[in-house]
Design goal:
The protein has about 90 residues and is mostly helical. It has 6 helices and no strands.
Length: about 90
């Protein structure tokens, strides 16, 4: 079991979105909905990367996984979201 975690702030310079802009916003409601999904930690990291503005290929490189794995993890989160909130 290999821990492939990197702090998102270490990667911030390379992101296509300005993280400081989003740190000023209040995302409490969004965070509460995400908690209701009961995502696996691996799926949550991928979702956090998407929310940080990263693209699929950036997430794959950042987490050292394939783009297919990124897509599957995002897909699991999306299915759970649709089941709960649609």
């Amino acid at each position: 079991n290999i821990n492939r975690f990197r702090d998102i702030d270490d990667y911030a310079e390379e992101l296509s979105v300005d993280i400081e802009y989003y740190k000023e916003k209040d995302f409490t409601e969004v965070d509460n909905k995400i908690e209701l999904l009961n995502l696996k930690p691996r799926d949550r990291v991928v979702l956090d990367c998407y929310f940080a503005g990263m693209h699929c290929h950036e997430i794959a490189e950042f987490l050292d996984i394939t783009r297919v794995t990124v897509w599957r993890r995002r897909q699991r989160a999306q299915v759970k979201y649709k089941a709960l909130f649609n």
